[in-house]
């Protein structure tokens, strides 16, 4: 198993600020225990086989079974093949778009 660390570079700082600058709930809804999915890593040979969908479904099920009131994710709007997945992946799983933030969307599913 390997771990990759991607620092917040000056170019990416505005995205970070836009996502996390507010204190408390970012928007209406979400409940008291919001869990987040921040990325997916799918090996190239098995991409486009439904693995991301299966992982997303399992992550949401796990979160709700362990006390989450909602689950959020932050996919890229323009690049669906990005490591966070595309908006369509989350919409197919029942997530609703909360709002767009720069190159990303905030999507959420509530229990």
How would you describe this protein?
By secondary structure, the protein is α+β, with helices and mostly antiparallel strands. The chain has one domain: 3-Layer(aba) Sandwich (Aminopeptidase), CATH 3.40.630.30. 26% of the residues lie in helices and 19% in strands. Strands 1-2-4-3 form a four-stranded mixed β-sheet. β1 (34-37), α2 (51-65) and β2 form a beta-alpha-beta unit. The chain is globular, with a radius of gyration of 14 Å. The termini are far apart.
Quick overview:
The protein has helices at 13-20, 51-65, 87-92; strands at 34-37, 70-73, 96-101, 104-110.
Question: Could you name the key traits of this structure?
Answer:
four-stranded mixed sheet, 3 helices, 19% strand, Aminopeptidase, alpha+beta, globular, 111 residues, 26% helix
State the distance separating the first and last CA atoms. Answer: 33 Å
Major sheet: size, sense and barrel closure?
4 strands, mixed
CATH secondary-structure class: Alpha Beta
List SSEs in N-to-C order: HEHEHEE
**Rg computed from alpha carbons, rounded to a whole number of angstroms:** 14 Å
Number of domain modules = 1
Q: In total, how many beta strands?
A: 4
Number of helices: 3
Approximate helicity band: 25-40%
Q: Would you give the CATH topology?
A: Aminopeptidase
Structural class: alpha+beta
Mean pLDDT figure: 81
Residue windows where pLDDT falls under 50 for at least 5 positions: none
């Amino acid at each position: 198993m390997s771990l990759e660390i991607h620092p917040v570079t000056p170019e990416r700082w505005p995205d970070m600020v836009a996502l996390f600058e507010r204190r408390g709930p970012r928007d209406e809804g979400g409940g008291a225990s919001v869990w987040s999915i921040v990325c997916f890593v799918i090996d190239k040979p098995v991409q486009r086989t439904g693995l991301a969908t299966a992982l997303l479904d399992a992550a949401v099920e796990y979160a709700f079974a362990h006390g989450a009131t909602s689950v959020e994710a932050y996919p890229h709007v323009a690049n669906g093949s990005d490591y966070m997945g595309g908006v369509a992946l989350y919409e197919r799983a029942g997530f609703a778009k909360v709002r767009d933030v720069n190159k990303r969307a905030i999507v959420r599913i509530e229990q």
